[in-house]
Specification:
four-stranded antiparallel beta sheet; 755 residues; globular; 3 helices
C-alpha cells in the first residue's frame, strides 16, 4: 500500500493523542530498574519503557508512560534537575526525553540524527549536571546540552586520534572534566578549555577499565571493573573499598556517596566513613542495579522487583514502592477471560527458536496485577519459554500455560497442578544427552470442552487433551507436511475444523470427524508466503490469514468439508484511484475480530490497524508516532468484549484503546447509556451498550422529533449528540427507542443533555 490513511485521519490521530489518557490505558512493568534520579524529597525511577516518581514526604506515586507522551526506546539513564525542573531520560538509541515538572514532554533527537556516529554507538550511559549544563556520557563520547535552552553544544570524542570510545560516566573536579571510559581509562580535560572537542586537549590519567567516577567531599573517586572503589589523587589511586562484583552505579546523593554492585550496596558520609552496607534484602531474591539516598532513607533499584525503600538504621523496616504492573513490559501473548487478562513473557524467534527464558506469568484483574514468578510456576519441574496461555471458557480459574520448550502446565486458581512434558501427554520433540524439548503452542478449546494444541517439530503435530478424563489423543500431519514443522495459534470453526498457521507449510486444516481430512493452503493456493503467522474467523464465516508478507482471506470456510483444494484471495482497495492490496508485504502478527465484525490487525513494524468488516476501509491506524503505542511491533491483541477495550501487547509495553465495539448481547435486558447525564463541555460520544446485533435505535426529543437513527453492529452504538450529524441538540431529555430486528424485543432508555 502506498498510504494507509487519508490526511483527515492523521490529523484526528494527532488530536486524539494530545488528549492524554482519556481514550487510552497503560499497563507497563516497573520491575527492571535501569536507573534512579533524586532531588531532596523525590525519587525518579526508570524501567526499560516507563518511569515513576515517588514523593518521600507524602508517599505520592506518579507514573509516566507512553500514554503521557514518554515514547521511550529502551531507557538507560535518568537524571532530575531541581534547578531547572526537568527530568532527562536517556535511551539506548540516543534519544533524550525531557520531562518537565508541568508535564510537558520534549523529545531531543540530535544524537539520533548524528550521521557521523554508528547507530549502535549512540547509547546514553549517564547524565551529569554542572553549572546549568548536562554532560551526557554516550558510547561514542560526551555531548553537552544547555539545561535552560535545551540546545546541544560541543561533542567530545576522547579516543586515540579522536576515535569513538564508550564513556560510562563523567564528573567535574578541581577544574577538570573527568571521563570514565571502559577500555580507554580515565581521561580528563580542563573544563574551561574552549577546544575540548579536540582530542589532543585530553590526557589519560588512569588506564584500563573503569565503571564510574564522581567528585565527593572534595576528592575524586572511581570504580574499577574488579569492584574496587579508589580515591584518585595526583596520578595515584588509593583503595577505599572492594565490592564483590563490578560496580554498576556510583553516585553522590544528598550528602552521601553510594556504590552499588549486583549483590552489595555501600554508603559513605562526607567524612568517608561507611555508614551503611546492604548485602541482601531479607526475604527477597533480587539483583541490585542502582541505589540512592533521599531524606535519610535508601532507595534500592532491582532487576526483578522494582524499587525498595529501607531505613538505613534498620533494614527490617522496608517497603516496595514500585507501581503495580506485570512482570515485564515485553508481553508476548495475551488471553482475556470474563474477569482477567493473562500475559506471558517468553518468546520464540521468527524461525520458532525458543528464548529459553525463565519468566513467570502476569494476570490483571479487578484489583490490579497479580504476578506468578518463575519459582512458583516451575514447582512441578522446569518450565521455560512460556509463550501462550489458554483459559477454559467454562471455568476461567482453569488455565493452561504453553511452553515452547517444556510442554504444557495446568493451573487451578493460580496454582500449578499438572505438568505435561512428554512423559504424560505431548511426545518429546527430541532427546539428546538428556535434553528434552517439547514445543507446545496454539491452545484452543472446542465446543465439547477439549483443548487442542500444536506440538511443534513432531510428526504427530496436533494433540487433543480432554480435561474431564485427563486423556490425550494425537493426530499425524506427516502425509501433508513435508518433514516436521512449527505452528502458531490455531482457530476452530463451527464444523470442528482446526486451522493452524505454520512456519513453512502455509495454513494446515484438519478435521478428525471427516476421516482425519487434512489440507494445506500454501503458495499454490495464493498465499503470499508459506510463513503463516495469524488466523481469525469472522462473523461472515471467512478465514483471515496473516502471513510474513501480507494478508489473504478464504471465503466460505465450510468449503473445506466438500472440496479438496482451496484458494485464498487478497483484499483489493482503491488508493488515489489505483488498485492496491491491503496490507501488502506486511508481517501480520495477529488478527482479531471485534463485536462489529471489524478486524484489528497487528503487524511487526507498522503498528496496529482497524479495518472495516470487508477490509475496504481503514478505520484506524495506530503507530508509535501518532498514538500512545510504545512500539510498532505488535505481539498480540485482545479485546474485552464487554467494554470494547482493546489491548495491544508490544515488545516495549502494553497499552489499551478504549474502543466501543462490544460483543452483542443475547437480549436487551442489560442496555445502559453513558455518560448520563451529558454535562456541559463534554465533547465525546454517548455510548448505548448492551445491545443485541442488528437492533434498530431511534432517538427523539421529548416531543417525539427524530434526531438520530441507526442499526447496531455488535453490542454498542455511538451518538455524537447531534441531530443527524449536523448541529448539536439542545439541552433536554431525549428518548432512546430500541427494537430487535423482528420487533419481538423492545427497550426504552432516556438520556439527559445539559449544555
Amino acid at each position: 500500500m502506498k498510504r494507509f490513511l487519508p490526511i483527515y485521519f492523521l490529523l484526528f490521530s494527532t488530536a486524539l493523542f494530545s488528549q492524554g489518557n482519556q481514550q487510552w490505558g497503560s499497563y507497563f512493568s516497573y520491575t527492571n530498574i535501569q536507573d534512579i534520579g533524586q532531588s531532596s524529597n523525590r525519587v525518579f525511577a526508570a524501567s526499560e519503557s516507563a518511569m515513576f516518581i515517588n514523593n518521600v514526604g507524602t508517599n505520592e506515586l506518579k507514573t509516566i508512560t507512553s500514554v503521557d507522551g514518554l515514547k521511550a526506546e529502551t531507557i538507560t539513564a535518568i537524571h532530575h534537575s531541581p534547578t531547572f525542573g526537568r527530568t532527562l531520560v536517556g535511551n539506548d538509541n540516543g534519544l533524550l526525553i525531557v520531562v518537565n515538572n508541568d508535564g510537558r514532554i520534549i523529545n531531543k533527537i540530535e544524537i539520533i540524527q548524528e550521521t557521523t556516529v554508528p547507530a549502535a554507538r549512540k547509547k546514553i550511559n549517564h547524565i551529569y549536571e554542572y553549572e546549568g549544563k548536562a554532560y551526557i556520557s554516550c558510547d561514542f563520547g560526551i555531548t553537552v546540552i544547555n539545561l535552560s535552552t535545551l540546545e546541544f553544544g560541543d561533542t567530545y570524542y576522547l579516543g586515540p586520534n579522536g576515535s569513538e570510545v564508550s564513556v560510562r560516566q563523567c564528573t567535574v573536579h578541581n577544574g577538570y572534566l573527568y571521563a570514565c571510559t571502559f577500555g580507554s581509562g580515565i581521561r580528563r580535560g580542563v573544563l574551561t578549555n574552549p577546544n575540548l572537542n579536540d582530542y589532543n586537549q585530553w590526557e589519560e590519567e588512569f588506564n584500563f577499565y573503569w565503571n564510574g567516577v564522581v567528585s565527593f567531599s572534595g576528592k575524586l573517586f572511581a570504580a574499577y571493573n574488579d569492584g574496587g572503589i579508589y580515591r584518585l589523587e595526583n596520578g595515584a589511586n588509593y583503595l577505599l573499598a572492594s565490592l564483590p562484583s563490578p560496580v554498576t552505579d556510583l553516585r553522590v546523593a544528598n550528602g552521601y556517596m553510594v556504590a552499588t554492585c549486583r549483590n552489595r550496596i555501600n554508603v559513605y558520609n562526607e567524612a568517608l566513613q561507611q555508614v551503611f552496607q546492604l548485602n541482601l534484602i531479607p526475604g527477597e531474591n533480587v539483583t541490585f542495579t542502582c541505589a540512592t539516598v533521599v531524606g535519610g532513607q535508601i532507595f534500592v533499584g532491582t532487576a526483578e522487583k522494582g524499587v525498595f525503600l529501607l531505613e538505613m538504621n534498620n533494614v527490617s523496616i522496608r517497603s516496595n514502592i514500585t507501581p503495580n504492573g506485570p512482570l515485564r513490559s515485553n508481553i508476548f501473548s495475551l488471553e482475556k477471560t470474563p474477569t482477567n487478562l493473562w500475559a506471558v513473557h517468553g518468546s520464540y524467534s521468527f524461525d520458532y527458536i525458543p528464548d529459553f527464558s525463565e519468566y513467570g506469568v502476569s494476570k490483571f484483574g479487578a484489583n490490579g496485577w497479580t504476578n506468578l514468578p518463575y519459582e512458583e510456576i516451575s514447582v512441578l519441574g522446569e518450565f521455560k519459554s512460556i509463550v501462550d496461555v489458554t483459559a477454559n471458557p467454562n471455568n476461567e480459574n482453569e488455565v493452561y500455560l504453553q511452553s515452547h520448550h517444556s510442554g504444557m502446565l495446568k493451573l487451578e486458581n493460580d496454582v500449578p497442578v499438572a505438568l505435561y512434558n512428554g512423559d504424560d501427554g505431548p511426545e518429546n520433540q527430541e532427546e539428546v544427552a538428556n535434553f528434552v524439548n517439547v514445543r507446545i503452542l496454539g491452545g484452543t478449546f472446542d465446543r465439547s470442552g477439549s483443548l487442542w494444541v500444536a506440538n511443534g517439530l513432531t510428526k504427530k503435530a496436533l494433540k487433543k487433551f480432554t480435561p474431564s478424563n485427563n486423556s490425550w489423543a494425537a493426530y499425524n500431519f506427516e502425509e501433508a507436511v513435508s518433514g516436521v514443522d512449527s505452528y502458531g495459534k490455531m482457530v476452530i470453526d463451527r464444523n470442528g475444523t482446526k486451522w493452524l498457521p505454520s512456519g513453512k507449510s502455509g495454513v494446515v486444516a484438519f478435521n478428525e470427524s471427516l476421516g482425519n481430512k487434512l489440507m494445506i493452503i500454501s503458495e499454490e493456493g495464493n498465499l503470499p508466503s508459506i510463513r503463516a503467522m495469524s488466523l481469525a474467523i469472522d462473523n461472515n464465516n471467512r478465514l483471515w490469514i496473516g502471513t510474513s508478507r501480507g494478508l489473504r482471506v478464504l471465503s466460505g470456510i465450510d468449503r473445506f468439508t466438500t472440496e479438496n483444494e482451496l484458494r485464498v484471495n487478497p483484499i483489493i482497495i482503491m488508493d488515489d484511484g489505483l488498485a492496491q492490496e491491503l496490507m501488502y508485504e506486511q508481517a501480520i502478527t495477529d488478527i482479531l475480530v471485534d463485536g462489529s465484525n471489524n478486524k484489528w490487525i497487528g503487524t511487526s513494524g507498522a503498528g496496529a490497524f482497524l479495518v472495516s468488516p470487508d477490509g475496504q476501509r481503514t478505520l484506524f491506524h495506530f503507530t508509535k508516532e501518532n498514538s500512545p503505542l510504545p512500539s510498532n511491533n505488535i505481539n498480540d491483541i485482545e479485546i474485552d468484549n464487554r467494554t470494547g477495550e482493546v489491548f495491544f501487547a508490544t515488545d516495549k509495553g502494553m497499552v489499551s484503546y478504549k474502543g466501543t465495539s462490544t460483543e452483542a448481547a443475547d437480549d436487551l435486558s442489560k442496555v445502559y447509556v453513558f455518560p448520563n447525564p451529558v454535562r456541559p463541555n463534554f465533547e465525546g460520544d454517548v455510548n448505548i451498550s448492551g445491545l443485541i446485533d442488528k437492533a434498530n435505535i431511534k432517538i427523539t426529543d421529548i416531543e417525539g422529533n427524530l434526531v438520530f437513527e441507526t442499526t447496531s453492529e455488535g453490542g454498542t452504538v455511538l451518538w455524537n449528540t447531534r441531530a443527524f450529524g449536523k448541529h448539536k441538540v439542545a439541552s433536554g431529555v431525549y428518548m432512546i427507542f430500541i427494537a430487535s430486528e423482528d420487533g419481538t424485543e423492545t427497550k426504552v432508555k432516556k438520556v439527559m443533555i445539559i449544555r
